[in-house]
Amino acid sequence: MYIDNPAIYTDYYELTMAQGYFLSGVHKKQACFDYFFRKQPFDGGYTVFAGLTDLLKTLENYSFSEEELNYLKDQGFKQPFLDYLSDFRFKGTIWSVKEGELTFPVLPVIRVEGTLLETQVVETLLLNIINFQSLIATKAARMKVAAGNRTVLDFGLRRSQGLGGVHATRAAMIGGVDATSNVYSAFKYNLPVSGTMAHSWVQAFTDELTAFREYARHNPDDTALLVDTYDTLGSGVPNAITVAKEMEKSGHKLKAIRLDSGDLAYFSHQSRKMLDKAGLDYVKIAVSNQLDEYLIFSLITQKAPIDIFGVGTRLVTAQDSPALDGVYKLSETDHKPTLKISENIEKITLPGRKRILRYLNEDGTFYGDGIIRADEDAPERIYHPYFPAKKSYVGDIKHYELLGKVFENGNIIHSVSDVKESAAYCAQQLNKLSAEYKRFDNPHIYKVGISESLMILRDRLISTLKPDSL
Amino acid sequence: MYIDNPAIYTDYYELTMAQGYFLSGVHKKQACFDYFFRKQPFDGGYTVFAGLTDLLKTLENYSFSEEELNYLKDQGFKQPFLDYLSDFRFKGTIWSVKEGELTFPVLPVIRVEGTLLETQVVETLLLNIINFQSLIATKAARMKVAAGNRTVLDFGLRRSQGLGGVHATRAAMIGGVDATSNVYSAFKYNLPVSGTMAHSWVQAFTDELTAFREYARHNPDDTALLVDTYDTLGSGVPNAITVAKEMEKSGHKLKAIRLDSGDLAYFSHQSRKMLDKAGLDYVKIAVSNQLDEYLIFSLITQKAPIDIFGVGTRLVTAQDSPALDGVYKLSETDHKPTLKISENIEKITLPGRKRILRYLNEDGTFYGDGIIRADEDAPERIYHPYFPAKKSYVGDIKHYELLGKVFENGNIIHSVSDVKESAAYCAQQLNKLSAEYKRFDNPHIYKVGISESLMILRDRLISTLKPDSL
Labelling A137: which of A212, A217, B14, B394 has CA 20 to 30 A away? Predict the structure, then answer.
């Protein structure tokens, strides 16, 4: 699903500024904005970039309807500006990293070039889509890293932040989740969908065994029995075993049992023993109940015999860090570099049009990234963005460009990835990131540097705009 | 905005269960489900109920389109069931508390009655809408409680969880926020909208003073100047003062300045002094930057002269507690009470159809709530839900019914509240909740009890289903 009124899916100030630019006659000035974030979510070592295809498809259809223009008129917007908006289309040029790419703080992972008005007015839309999908793709990747080759399923729709569930599921799949319970997103984005029964199914029949039998009868090839409605080891697992043996007689196999409460390590061990003793070693064990990457890791450390992790709330809301702090900052107007100064060093922006170089170690793993001016050659050295005494020689290190042109003249300029391709790309890039960046506690900090030329430009602008800036 | 495909905006298992009920021939059995939550979000003292109107309007239009049925066919659903779905409408009866009502754990604040199939299949939809809107309405109410009579604005769209922003804003207004930057939600829900400029506006002109003058020229009656792009006290506030004095000459007044970084207590004090010294005591001070109820409270405690709080991420994502744990549990089938047992006492459900009585102190403030069986009279005593030795005599306490019938035969049965009415109701109810429930640290725990008759019913069912249940 894209947004039904994308042009007004925005902060009001984007429109008051757009009108102001128009009335001041500066709306056609050239401008360039960067999207970047300042801090890894989850105190983690990487962020999976996601949401680009949704953003670009929305921009292809970006326009103001008559109904929207009437609404803006009621808010006091002026007729000449509304007339201008009535046939406005976004014609800017967008450079971006790929969906599924691993990204790091400070990197300008999207660059939007065009007129001042068109680049400004899409800010909120871009931030809303990219911040959230990148956040959830990252959370999903962390869970998948913890789960290894076990299956991870998204069960989050009921606790997702309203309609946020639509894109949470899409992003989770890019990050590595295997399938979802969310039918809507599966339908819209062509994703694998999965699910069997709730406790209410068991309660709806006269007894648990009947409930299990009825489900198996209707779904002989796709039955997972929820065993904790009344008494997990006393009735749930024994009844599941009874039904599994009955299914065998008709040539079918019970797929799994699911545990949704109690101590999952204990119950999975006990259930596995009971199933194995009954000759049902093929029946998988699925678990759910407030899982996240830490609990998955803990269960695996305890050698809990779990095959499938159903994750919900903590995935789709990114519960421990529910927002990515991505921002969209003006870096150039009228082909002149600009920046914003702040009391907080990390909030001072990098001026001008920029490229990103990704450097590779000899084994193909990532060494680090360099941010350089768009018109300069690959530099000899890159410098810490805020502490230039820290620097690295990169003159002879293999590298490639991270940003590619993805949108021009109102259209997506080459085929953008679907979810499956982006998920495959993410998995491939995760393989190129060393384990120490992927651990959950105090991950190794990835090198991101800036070129000397970019540093000089920034520092000169600061000196001009605020000579006494300490 | 309602959901464009509500029938498949659901977990897959709702549909596999619906098909199973249909194939087993039990789909028309009578059933009753309760919606309730188990834990206050934010470790707070109350939860503001919200989302009902969106839910009910969605249910009025709930049906399966041909496109959706084809999709389900591709997933392996069976033709007789798909035929049944093709003219399926939700015809159940819904009882609910009002939007804006203050609610507490365990209370069955929504009761859905109807056939087993129809009451089951709306579960995820109901949970998705009500959990999120109640969460955000609660967060907003907390911020408004902290801000007192100062203005609170929602600036959260850029960091909201994707399309979750649509309903975050709606819910925030019910909780007490005064206006929003979110144009889309303002348009769809008729809410007051607000916003002026970002740092990019200031950067887009040759200098800050020109940028301020240009904005004021185009918006003489609605200008708030963002003063921290380069140097708050060195240039931002002095330039704002210059422009304010120029505005006075043409008969206009600068509305406000906005601070978005640095120490907001320090900068608001300094800015206030500078403005007052220039005779601009009418110019308001707005602040933003990662605010929540705790920071608002802290700023007020520091006597920071702030008039307007712009809140974003921490409001629209409910950052410190981003999900309400509301659940939807079967309480009756075939007119027989049912429950779910769990290892966790708090996860054992209350069987049967129930009513809620709200008891009032003599001064009109809330005393506590009682959950009783639907067919019993108001009881003499109510008991702690899990520890019956704790009980209260309520035989002579004034009370009223909390649940009202809101949906029947496919339609909303009396006019449901709009956002403005619900916000007014919420404010009124907050006035009836004593201060000790509203404080942020260790709030007083509100009394919620169950009747003896309900307790006996529950305990008897547990004994039958799981005699050894400790």
Answer: B14
